[in-house]
Amino acid sequence: MQSNYRVAELIVQFMNGATLTQADIQKRYQIGLRTCQRDLSYIRKALAEYDTGQLIEQQGTYHLTHKSEQLNYEIVLAASNILLGTRALTPTELNATLDFLSVNLSPTMQAALHKQLTVPRGSYVPLSKPKALLSRLHEMAICIANNQRLTFTYLSSQPTEPRPLVHHAQPVALFFEVHYFYVAMLSQERGGYWMYRLDRIDTILTKTAGEKLDYAQRFSLQDHRHHTYLVDDGELMQIRFIYRFYPQTALDAFPGSRVIKENADGSVVIEAYVKIGGAIRWLLSQGSGLKVIAPTSLVKQMRQELIAAQAQYLE
């Protein structure tokens, strides 16, 4: 059989979903190892030139992955690793979610994904007191869609509230931030919008009809993420600080921030608009790599915090 016809026939087989071993190809076409490898090399080049897929080899077995299949695999691989990094779900819910993500992949891609995730899944460390959250996430999403108002018990993280207390609030937005799911609610007890951690909601006592909130007065998740670093606390203010580490680290920490000056020593001056209660925790975490320069009230607060921290280590 002429080599061109053989290569064309192999391409058709791969395009139709065939999985072939090197030994199969050699036996069927009565060719040697070097000829087989050359044919497979031609096929790889042709697939790459026309961007129709990729020929995958696994222990001497070859199959074609189409471009869409590769993209699906890449999306599931990325989503799975992000999910593993959250630590938010119980092991049972995590495994169910990961299995669901991969269910529409081909058997070959599922096997490849399983191999890639073996170590990450085996080393998954959930939060210290994980709670089943999938059904509660669903329940909250329905409440938001139906504009329902809730009466529920909630265990605060504040030491002054050691037991669950009754709250009355209307959920308006559900989101995730660093290990935890949160529900933004218009709260009677807090006198405005408040961020409730989903896993700290103990028991939902009642559900009643709430209000269809005016668009201009609704909670803005976009503003929350632009002005908050982990903790939605404190007043909004414009701050400036000198940063001596990699600037992008600080710019990523505070969305909307910008470099307003580059100093001769390699440091930069960054300006950000933040809720200061949460932001100060990050500012303090940067140690000598950061110096707040404005406003004066924040400079004073940073100095007081650092002096108090140092005092704990004085003999």
UniProtKB/TrEMBL annotation:
Domain WCX residues, every copy: 254-306
Matching Pfam families: WCX, WYL
Leader sequence residues: none
InterPro entries per the UniProt record, alphabetical: CBASS_pafABC_assoc_protein (IPR051534), WCX_dom (IPR057727), WYL_dom (IPR026881)
Coiled-coil residue windows: none
Domain WYL residue range list: 143-203
Protein name (record): Helix-turn-helix transcriptional regulator
